[in-house]
Amino acid sequence: MNVLLGVGGGIAAYKAAELARALMEGGARVQVVMTAAAQEFVRPLTFAALTGRKVITDLFSSASGDATLSSAVEHIAVAQENGLFAVAPATADLLAKFANGLADDFLTTAYLAFTGPVILAPAMNTNMWLHPATRENVKRLRDRGHRIVEPEEGYLACGMTGAGRLASPDAIARAVLAEGNRRSDLEGETVLVTAGPTQEPIDPVRYLTNRSSGKMGYAIAEAARARGARVILVSGPVHIQAPRDVTLVPVRTANEMRAAVLDRLDKATIIVKSAAVADFHVSRPPEQKIKKTAARLTLELDPTPDILSELGRRKGDRLLIGFAAETENLNREAHRKLETKNCDMIVGNLVGGALGFDSDENEVVLALRTGETVPVERASKRAIADRIFDEALRLRQALHARQ
Ligand code: CTP
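That is the input. Now the predicted structure with cytidine-5'-triphosphate docked in place:
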């Protein structure tokens, strides 16, 4: 695993030396890039001695030596050679630059040229960490799918006590190495994801739908793709962009979603049914617009097919992951749906409050076929998506071991 380790300019820069060593002990090849400010705190030689490689210190002096045209495009080569991009300490300035796409030195330029997983370990004064500008930058970086290794609370070099101290080099190394292992753990799998709401026509101009934004399902599709899976995303109507390199199958109604999923069932090894499928529809909507002549309008609704239950009957040895959107009794309902729909996992989330539909974050419980319940704390939907796959792969091993 090749790791580009960016070192920012903060007192904690010296701890990055220990991090570099921990990464190498974990089997990584480490290319260090230091900002100009970082070099005020630690000399590049420290990292060169530890990693056995020349440290990159600015945009126009390359790891290979002299300043040539090739060194001027080295940030592109370095971005391509490395599978992971980690930064510790990530200063407030670096977070702001990454969040806004500013690229005025090697590290920030390489960041823009990099397409793989990014892990950032911030360290700064408490007030700087809590400042709304930093909060916004961190949120944007998280929403982009980057992993933030939260700073710890403690005594800071500035004399204050509070949040902002760099996480321990061991904790950062674990996060980086775990990200590296995830990178390919879904290779060879085809993940079929459903996302978004469905729209059930009432007449040619009106429809029944729900508040689902599709964000959770799209985050699942993106996570699966990032971990090496082929991804088929069957999506109801949403207003968000599909992730790169996934096969998008747009559908509108529950019946269309059912047909699209069953058509592709043979290809799938893992199915994640995060769509909020309408439970009822007008089975034969009129061809003409309903006029408001009557004093009262009664709609007759029939149940839609329960796609997840049908998949539960036909799943074979595929991993089947369903969702449960609840307003109460989350754990009980998640386990009940796990049983009745014959799933391997149900991701239960409380809806109707601040989290859930349309939010960028979520907080869920995972009800597993083994009978376990795994709570997942509030995090970005992208981070939750990764936890779902971590647990799904662990579950598959546990189920195989039982056979
Ligand atoms: N689901 C489905 N087809 C339906 C309804 C739901 O495949 N017609 C799936 C959803 O994609 C989700 C799971 O079933 O994975 C649970 O959806 P949810 O709305 O929470 O539960 P329901 O089965 O609709 O039960 P209830 O509305 O009674 O809570």
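The first helix runs from residue 15 to 25.
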